[in-house]
Amino acid sequence: MPFRYAELEDAIVDGVRRAVEGRRVAVAFSGGLDSGLAACLSDRYAESVTLYTCGSDGSFDVLAAEELSETIGLPWVHVRISEDDVEDTIRRLISATGTDDPFTISYELQLFTVCERAPEPVVVSGQGADEYFMGCAKYVGCTDGDYDAYVKDGVRRLMDVSVPCELAIARHFGKTLYYPYLDDDVVGCVRRIDPAELRPADMDSRKKVLKEVATDLGYPFLAHRTKKSSQYGSGTTDIVRALAKRRGLMYNRYIQSLYEEVFPPSEGD
Question: What is the CB-side half-sphere exposure of residue 175 using CA atoms within 13 A?
Answer without folding.
Answer: 30
